[in-house]
Amino acid sequence: EKARVMEWERQGQVEHQSQNGGGLYVKVMTDEQMELLRRQISVYATICEQLVEMHKAITTQQDLAGMRLGSLYCDPFMTSAGHKITSRQRWTPTPVQLQILEQIFDQGNGTPSKQKIKEMTNELTQHGPISETNVYNWFQNRRARSKRKQSVPVQNNAESEVETDVESPKEKKTKPEDIQSFENSAPRAENMYFQGPEMGTEMHCLDTQPN
Amino acid sequence: EKARVMEWERQGQVEHQSQNGGGLYVKVMTDEQMELLRRQISVYATICEQLVEMHKAITTQQDLAGMRLGSLYCDPFMTSAGHKITSRQRWTPTPVQLQILEQIFDQGNGTPSKQKIKEMTNELTQHGPISETNVYNWFQNRRARSKRKQSVPVQNNAESEVETDVESPKEKKTKPEDIQSFENSAPRAENMYFQGPEMGTEMHCLDTQPN
DNA sequence: GATTTATGAATGAAGG
DNA sequence: CCTTCATTCATAAATC
């Protein structure tokens, strides 16, 4: 039942749109499925809101006592896949950092100058460890990869080698610019974009000020 | 407006399926949009889990139990949901594709150029769904893993440590020690808020599974 | 059907 | 900038 949300992903038919000569695969979902999704998302939104509120209240009232409970959360489930915590040897942007970076990136002001990077780094430091090199690399990678960011049409190959006479259904990476503009049409995406699993690394240290 | 998440609903095309005689309207979304949605949901799921865990820890510890937030744990899907709510489908090579790929790989022609990948993809499409990205990834992984396989079975002498000595044959590897200056300091919970909790309206307490 | 393994994919960093 | 590599994550497949 937990996978109900994305159920449509599996049962949804795959439509072959043969417009423009080049085929384009798209997923199809019914209104029912969409409504289901909408509800599920709403649930999450509400829960998050409530939890955040509560947590705020609790930590505030607890702040008086000056209790430190940071390390207490460490284990619960930041290891969603049962991995070791200490294995990080390379920088990983915190959710907040990611948000900020994405935001700046979306402003499309091309390559950030060295000066700008310095500023950014300075700002981002407030949200976690980061270096100018990290920022620089991030922008490099982000730009480079935004080009082939086209969604990979991963379709299940239920049966082996069906001779589908398709030409090249998944090559919609015609122009990077097109994709770019397409991405812009999904506005708030970046604001919510935290890449789940890594988040735990930051969250568990909820104590605001280690004295 | 709380319906931002469903933005794709507006931009997605609407397909008219005239099957069954009676027309049936369905929404259409691209893979990219779907991936976006998936991530958004994943974000919520993770945040919820985190918050719940933290909250549990706090309330358990201080035991003052003044606030009754137990109702928040009541959600049926929270406990079992997690990251599993949104699952990504991934490409799996068909036997024939795999065979071809292995064959090409064995020819030792190192890194396949972009052009070569395109050709291969084109060829492999005859034997099942596949994209250039898939091919690219496959070669990357194949090479990386064949390299790693080599370095492992080298030790057969008087050996005592068999746990952390599987270093890659590189010497420029970073320090194995995790002297990382303590993950991150204090990412306040507020930082995790997303500017759109207002999208939940019709939902309050879960237990919504339309089962 | 719960765990473990194999492997496709994501990404930070280095090289050119 | 672009490409490549190393590492990690997530999940399909395999195993128990």
TrEMBL record, chains A, B:
Ranges of residues in domain Homeobox: 84-149
Any Gene Ontology CC annotation: nucleus
Q: Which domain of life is it from?
A: Eukaryota
Q: Name one GO molecular function term.
A: DNA binding
- Point to the regions of Basic and acidic residues compositional bias: 167-178
Where it mainly occurs, coarsely classed, is nucleus
Summarize which parts of the chain are annotated to bind DNA, as ranges: 86-150
Q: Which UniProt keywords apply?
A: DNA-binding, Homeobox, Nucleus
Q: Where found? A: Nucleus
Please tell me whether the keyword Nucleus is annotated for this protein: yes
Q: Where is this region: Disordered?
A: 146-178
Q: What is this protein called?
A: Homeobox domain-containing protein
